[in-house]
Design brief:
- The protein is mainly alpha-helical.
- Helices cover 59% and strands 7% of the residues.
- The strands form 3 sheets. A two-stranded parallel ribbon has the order 1-4. Strands 2-3 form a two-stranded antiparallel ribbon. It has a two-stranded antiparallel ribbon with strand order 5-6.
Amino acid sequence: MFGTIVIDLNPNVAQIGPVLITWHGIFSVIGIVAAARVGQMLLQRDGIAPDRVYDMAVWMVVAGLIGARLLFVWENYQQFEGNLIRIVQINEGGISQWGGIFGALIGGYAWCRHSGVDFRKILDAAGPANALGFAIGRIGDVINGEHHAIPTNLPWGVQYVNEQTLGEVGLTVHPEVAYELVFNLLVFVAAIATYPVFKRRLPTGVTGLIWLSVYATGRFFLSFLREDSLIFGLRQAQWASLLMIAVSIVAIVVWTRWSGRRTPSEPQQESGQEPAAV
C-alpha cells in the first residue's frame, strides 16, 4: 500500500431541493465554457463573428449532452431500470465522452447547414477546444471516481474511501481519468502551438481531424485500463475511437485530394458549401 493516493472527497457539493450539485457537473460546465471560449478565439481568425460562435455552441452543447447521456444510459441501462427519471439527472454524473463528441459534431453540422458556414472550419477549432474541455471535465471524474479502472500496485494507484464515492471502495486502481486529463492537456498545448502552421499548410478541416484522431488514439490505449464491459474483445470507447480514426482518415484523404485538384485560378469556396465528394 506504500504510495497509494487516498481520495476522500465527497463528489456532492450541495442539495438544493430535488437538484443535486456535484463536482462532476461543475467541472463539466467549466469545461464546456472553456471549450467554447477557445473555439470562439480560433474561429474569429476564420472570420466567424463571436456571436455566431456562441449561437453554434448552444447547438453543440445541447446535442452533445443528449448524445453523451443517451450513450451512457445505453451502456448502463441496468442502473435506470425502474427509475427512468434518473435518465435526465445528468448533474449526478454518468455521461459518455464519445457520445458527447459525436453528438456535438452532429449539432455543429446542423448549425452550419442552417447558417451557411463551412463545417470544416468548425472541425479545425474543435480539435484544441475539445481537448481543453475534456481535460477540465476530467477533474470532476477524478473526484467522483465513477469511471472504474483496473487494480494496480503502482505507487500512484488511487483508492476511493469517501462514503459517497462512486469509485471502487477497497481497491487500489489506476487513476485512468487522471491519465486522460494529462493527455488532453498535452494535446491541447500541441494543438494550439501548431495551429497557425497547420492552418496555413493543410486543407480546411484536416487540422481538426488530426487532433481528434490523436485524442482517439490515446483514448483507445488508455481504455485498456478501464473496467468497462467488452464488445467483441474491445471496450465501447475503443470501438468509438476506431470509428473516429477511420472517419478522419477517409475525410482527410478526400479533402486533401479535392484541394489538390483545384487550380490557383479557381474561386475560393463559399463558406456554406462543401466538396461534392463528401
